[in-house]
Amino acid sequence: RSGWSRGRHGSLTGPQAITENCSWCMNEACAPLHEYFEVPYPFFLELADPAAKNQYIAAKHLDNEMERLASVRTIRGGLKTATSALQMVRQLCDMAAIATSCPMALVGLLDKHVYVPCAESGLGSLDKIDRQKCLAAHACRNGSPLVCSNLNRDVRFSANPWRRDVLKAQFYAGIPLTLSNGHTIGAIEVFDTTPRFACMEVITQLQTVVRGLIRKFEETLAKNIHVENEMAHKSSSMSGRRNPSTKNMENKQRTPRAPAPSAPSAPAIPPPKKSPKPSMRSPSHKPSGSEPEPLKAKGEPKMPTSAAPVDPTPTPVAPAPAAGAG
């Protein structure tokens, strides 16, 4: 068939894709997608390369990514110390596997670059998963429950190396966990190694688990936001006012101390007089005081105190006349 028409998700597409109903439950909603333009949410086109073995579609970030990540990290921090909350999440994850009769179940938080498992059933010890490889990123970006009856035939997941080599899953159902503040923090997922009958019934079977998880994550978020606000308030209060002990110390340093009463002091002893330095011309010590003037004879005229300066130039002497001169 050729021509342009609206695809199964209501968007304007190219030539109409060959769609199919789920061969197990006859519901179109859980049938695998065969074309990229059938994907109803944004994804990375540069990873959509069917010729490469390990290329796969990666869902893009959510619209409120920055605000959502703040809630995710607050809950992650709260679960590290709230052992009772983490234990409840694990119990709900086990309930999901039992209610859906799936051998594998996973509850995780979708962080910026990784998908962080909080609880698992039938998957062993899981480390952090690359966000681009996890299936939960698709459920969160889809914004509603995502079910695929046969992952091997779905263009989004068939070449995904984590799904193919680690999970080895063929059936998938994931429900995004969206809090009352509008932040989608992660997902509850169930997997099966074989295709499933009555695929959409799995979503109904998970509703009780979803409500329990959202309630527990809401409590953890509210509690830790309150703790963070208290810590921030205390920090600002401490920076805005000085420590009382420090303030008292500063006041003590600024207040001048009164002089302590002292014992009556002894009479001051004058320092000894320094003897004059000996003259370089005479080794004997000269008596202190001014030197007495020499006695003068009576009637001797007194010389003026200031005499005229003597000319140091010698007076020229006239030569004697020569002998025999006439």
From TrEMBL:
<feature type="compositionally biased region" description="Low complexity">
    <location>
        <begin position="277"/>
        <end position="287"/>
    </location>
</feature>
<feature type="region of interest" description="Disordered">
    <location>
        <begin position="228"/>
        <end position="326"/>
    </location>
</feature>
<feature type="compositionally biased region" description="Pro residues">
    <location>
        <begin position="258"/>
        <end position="273"/>
    </location>
</feature>
<dbReference type="InterPro" id="IPR003018">
    <property type="entry name" value="GAF"/>
</dbReference>
<dbReference type="InterPro" id="IPR029016">
    <property type="entry name" value="GAF-like_dom_sf"/>
</dbReference>
<feature type="domain" description="GAF">
    <location>
        <begin position="84"/>
        <end position="197"/>
    </location>
</feature>
<feature type="compositionally biased region" description="Polar residues">
    <location>
        <begin position="234"/>
        <end position="248"/>
    </location>
</feature>
<dbReference type="Pfam" id="PF01590">
    <property type="entry name" value="GAF"/>
</dbReference>
<protein>
    <recommendedName>
        <fullName>GAF domain-containing protein</fullName>
    </recommendedName>
</protein>
